[in-house]
C-alpha cells in the first residue's frame, strides 16, 4: 500500500512546507528547514516533525508558538499513555486523540491555529496518513498537503501517485513536487528534510535541496 | 528608564471579545525599542487572530521601532552586539539604553520590542534560572532557559506583549544562542539580528562570517562593524555599540564604543 503526502503551509507572514509520502510498507515525509520571520528567514535545522512514538510522526505547521506547544503537548500525552497502559496508541487512535484535543480547544479562549499531518505505521493496518486542519477536520488520505504549496503539488500527486510505488519512486515523486515548488512558488525553500516510516520505524532520508531556480 | 512617556501609540485598538487570545492590552506608553521589522509606515505589527472567521478587521498595533541587536556564534563562543538608541516616534528619547540584560554570570539576553516587557520577563527568567540551579545543583542550559522564557510568554500570546530577544550563553554543550519572541517563536541558530536595523547588520555579518575561523578580536570587530553599519543606515538605531563576548567562563563586557567615534575611525581607515 502506498501513501504519499505533501504538506506545506504558506501564510502571508509565515511559510512552512511539509511533504510527506508513504509507499508500500512505509511513509515518506518531508518538511523544509526554514523559519520565516516577517520578510527575512532564519535558516535552521528546526524540525517540524515531532516523533510521537517509534512509528508515528506528527508534522505541525501554523501559528508561531502554537505549533510547538500543541505538538509537544500531544507528544507528551502519547508517551504518557504508553507509560500508563503499557502499550502504544495506534496511528489511528493517535490521530483521533489529536483531533479531539484540537476540537476541544477550538471553541475555547485559546484555540490552536495549527495544521497537521500524522503519519504512522500500524502492525495490522499498515501505513496510514491522517490529514488534520485547524478546524479539527480529520481525514485519512493517501497523500496530503497544507498551504499554498498544496495548490502546486496536489495535482502532481494526483497524477503520478499509485498505491504500489516503490520507495525510490516515491522519493522521485517528492522530488518532482519540490522542483515544481522551486520553479513556481514565490518563496525560496532551500532544503527539505525527508523521513520514511516503515515497519522498522522512522528513518531519516537524505535532505533534498532543489537545484538553482530554473 | 527615567523617561517620561512621550508618545502614546494612537493606532492601538483595544478589543476584548472575551477571548484572551484576541484581546490586546495597552502597555504601549513606554518608549519602544523596536521589533523585528524594517522601519517605514507601511509596516505595522499585525497580531493575527487565531481563528480567522472574518470577524473584525485585522487589529494593528503600531510599535515604535528602533533598534539593532545581533548575536552570533563562532569558534570561541558568542558575540553579542547592540546599539543603544531609544526612539519615541521621531524623537530620540535616549542614546544610552542598556539593551543587553545580564541574566546571570553566564547568560545574556538582548532587548528588542517593548523595554518593559523585555526587562521584566528576563528578570523573571533570571529568577527561574536561579531556582533551577538551587534545585538541581547545576547550571541551567541555554536551551532550557530559552524554553522557560518561551513558555512564560506563550501564556500571554495575543495580549500585546512585544519582545524579541536572544538568549545567549555557554553551557556544557558549548556556546548556545536562541531567539525567542513574544509571538511564540523559539529558534536555535548561529546568527540572529533583531530590530529595524537588522537587515543592514545581516549584510555585514553574513559576509564577514564566510571565513570560518575568526579570532576573538576579529569577531568583536565584526559585531561592532555590523552595528555601526546598521546605525549608519537606520535612523532608529544609534548611540553606542555595546559589545559582549560569551565564553566558557561566562560573559565579558568587551567594549562600549560611540558610533560617531567609530565613524571617524572607519573613515580614517578608508583614507
UniProtKB/TrEMBL annotation, chain A:
Known role: Non-catalytic component of the 20S core proteasome complex involved in the proteolytic degradation of most intracellular proteins. This complex plays numerous essential roles within the cell by associating with different regulatory particles. Associated with two 19S regulatory particles, forms the 26S proteasome and thus participates in the ATP-dependent degradation of ubiquitinated proteins.
Keywords annotated in UniProt: Cytoplasm, Nucleus, Proteasome
Gene Ontology CC annotation, any one: cytoplasm
Organism: Hucho hucho
Domain of life: Eukaryota
One matching Pfam family: Proteasome
Subcellular location: Cytoplasm; Nucleus
Family membership noted in the UniProt record: Belongs to the peptidase T1B family.
SUPFAM superfamilies assigned to the protein according to its UniProt record, in alphabetical order: N-terminal nucleophile aminohydrolases (Ntn hydrolases) (SSF56235)
Signal peptide, first to last residue: none
Assembly information from the UniProt record: Component of the proteasome complex.
Example GO BP: proteasomal protein catabolic process
Name of the protein: Proteasome subunit beta
Automatic annotation (TrEMBL), chain B:
Main location: cytoplasm
Record's keyword terms, sorted: Cytoplasm, Hydrolase, Nucleus, Protease, Proteasome, Threonine protease, Zymogen
Catalytic activity: Cleavage of peptide bonds with very broad specificity
Any single GO CC term annotated in Swiss-Prot or TrEMBL for this entry: nucleoplasm
Protein name per Swiss-Prot or TrEMBL: Proteasome subunit beta
Oligomeric form and interacting partners: The 26S proteasome consists of a 20S proteasome core and two 19S regulatory subunits. The 20S proteasome core is a barrel-shaped complex made of 28 subunits that are arranged in four stacked rings. The two outer rings are each formed by seven alpha subunits, and the two inner rings are formed by seven beta subunits. The proteolytic activity is exerted by three beta-subunits PSMB5, PSMB6 and PSMB7. Directly interacts with POMP. Interacts with ABCB1 and TAP1. Component of the proteasome complex.
A GO term, aspect molecular function: threonine-type endopeptidase activity
The keyword Cytoplasm is assigned to this record: yes
Compartments reported by the entry: Cytoplasm; Nucleus
Assigned protein family: Belongs to the peptidase T1B family.
Active-site residues (renumbered): 67 (nucleophile)
GO BP terms in the entry: proteolysis involved in protein catabolic process
Alphabetical list of SUPFAM superfamilies matching this protein: N-terminal nucleophile aminohydrolases (Ntn hydrolases)
Protease keyword on record: yes
Role noted for this protein: Component of the proteasome, a multicatalytic proteinase complex which is characterized by its ability to cleave peptides with Arg, Phe, Tyr, Leu, and Glu adjacent to the leaving group at neutral or slightly basic pH. The proteasome has an ATP-dependent proteolytic activity. The proteasome is a multicatalytic proteinase complex which is characterized by its ability to cleave peptides with Arg, Phe, Tyr, Leu, and Glu adjacent to the leaving group at neutral or slightly basic pH. The proteasome has an ATP-dependent proteolytic activity. This subunit is involved in antigen processing to generate class I binding peptides.
InterPro entries registered for this protein in UniProt: Ntn_hydrolases_N (IPR029055), Pept_T1A_subB (IPR000243), Proteasome_bsu_CS (IPR016050), Proteasome_sua/b (IPR001353), Proteasome_suB-type (IPR023333)
Amino acid at each position: 500500500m502506498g501513501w504519499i503526502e505533501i504538506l506545506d503551509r504558506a501564510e502571508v507572514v509565515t511559510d512552512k512546507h511539509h511533504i510527506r509520502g508513504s509507499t508500500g510498507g512505509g511513509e515518506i515525509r518531508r518538511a523544509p528547514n526554514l523559519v520565516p520571520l516577517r520578510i527575512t528567514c532564519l535558516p535552521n535545522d528546526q524540525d517540524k516533525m515531532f516523533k510521537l512514538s517509534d512509528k508515528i510522526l506528527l508534522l505541525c505547521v501554523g501559528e508561531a508558538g502554537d505549533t510547538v506547544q500543541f505538538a509537544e503537548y500531544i507528544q507528551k500525552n502519547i508517551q504518557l499513555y504508553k507509560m500508563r497502559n503499557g502499550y502504544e496508541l495506534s496511528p489511528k487512535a493517535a490521530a483521533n486523540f489529536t483531533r479531539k484535543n484540537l476540537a476541544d480547544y477550538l471553541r475555547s479562549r485559546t484555540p490552536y491555529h495549527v495544521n497537521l499531518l500524522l503519519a504512522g505505521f500500524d502492525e495490522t493496518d499498515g501505513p496510514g496518513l491522517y490529514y488534520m486542519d485547524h478546524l479539527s477536520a480529520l481525514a485519512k488520505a493517501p497523500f496530503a498537503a497544507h498551504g499554498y504549496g498544496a495548490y502546486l503539488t496536489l495535482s502532481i500527486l494526483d497524477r503520478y501517485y499509485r498505491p504500489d510505488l516503490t520507495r525510490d519512486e516515491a522519493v522521485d515523486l517528492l522530488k518532482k513536487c519540490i522542483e515544481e515548488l522551486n520553479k513556481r512558488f514565490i518563496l525560496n525553500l532551500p532544503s527539505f528534510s525527508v523521513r520514511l516510516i516503515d515497519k522498522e520505524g522512522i528513518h531519516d532520508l537524505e535532505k533534498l535541496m532543489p537545484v538553482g531556480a530554473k | 528608564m527615567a523617561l517620561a512617556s512621550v508618545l502614546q501609540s494612537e493606532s492601538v485598538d483595544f478589543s476584548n471579545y472575551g477571548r484572551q487570545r484576541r484581546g490586546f492590552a495597552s502597555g504601549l506608553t513606554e518608549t519602544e525599542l523596536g521589533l523585528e521589522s524594517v522601519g517605514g509606515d507601511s509596516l505595522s505589527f499585525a497580531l493575527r487572530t487565531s481563528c480567522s472567521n472574518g470577524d473584525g478587521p485585522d487589529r494593528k498595533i503600531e510599535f515604535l521601532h528602533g533598534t539593532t541587536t545581533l548575536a552570533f556564534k563562532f569558534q570561541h563562543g558568542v558575540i553579542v552586539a547592540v546599539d543603544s538608541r531609544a526612539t519615541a516616534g521621531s524623537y530620540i528619547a535616549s542614546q544610552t539604553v542598556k539593551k543587553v540584560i545580564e541574566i546571570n554570570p553566564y547568560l545574556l539576553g538582548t532587548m528588542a520590542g517593548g523595554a518593559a516587557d523585555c526587562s521584566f520577563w528576563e528578570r523573571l527568567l533570571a529568577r527561574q534560572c536561579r531556582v533551577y540551579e538551587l534545585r538541581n545543583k547545576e547550571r541551567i542550559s541555554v536551551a532550557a532557559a530559552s524554553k522557560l522564557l518561551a513558555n512564560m510568554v506563550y501564556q500571554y500570546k495575543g495580549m500585546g506583549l512585544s519582545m524579541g530577544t536572544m538568549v545567549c550563553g555557554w553551557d556544557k554543550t558549548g556556546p548556545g544562542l536562541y531567539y525567542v519572541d513574544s509571538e511564540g517563536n523559539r529558534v536555535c541558530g548561529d546568527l540572529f539580528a533583531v530590530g529595524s536595523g537588522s537587515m543592514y547588520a545581516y549584510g555585514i555579518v553574513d559576509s564577514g562570517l564566510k571565513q570560518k575561523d575568526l579570532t576573538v578580536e576579529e569577531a568583536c570587530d565584526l559585531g561592532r562593524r555590523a552595528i555601526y553599519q546598521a546605525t549608519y543606515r537606520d535612523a532608529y538605531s544609534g548611540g553606542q555599540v555595546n559589545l559582549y563576548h560569551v565564553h566558557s567562563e561566562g560573559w565579558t563586557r568587551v567594549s562600549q564604543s560611540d558610533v560617531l567615534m567609530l565613524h571617524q575611525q572607519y573613515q580614517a581607515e578608508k583614507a
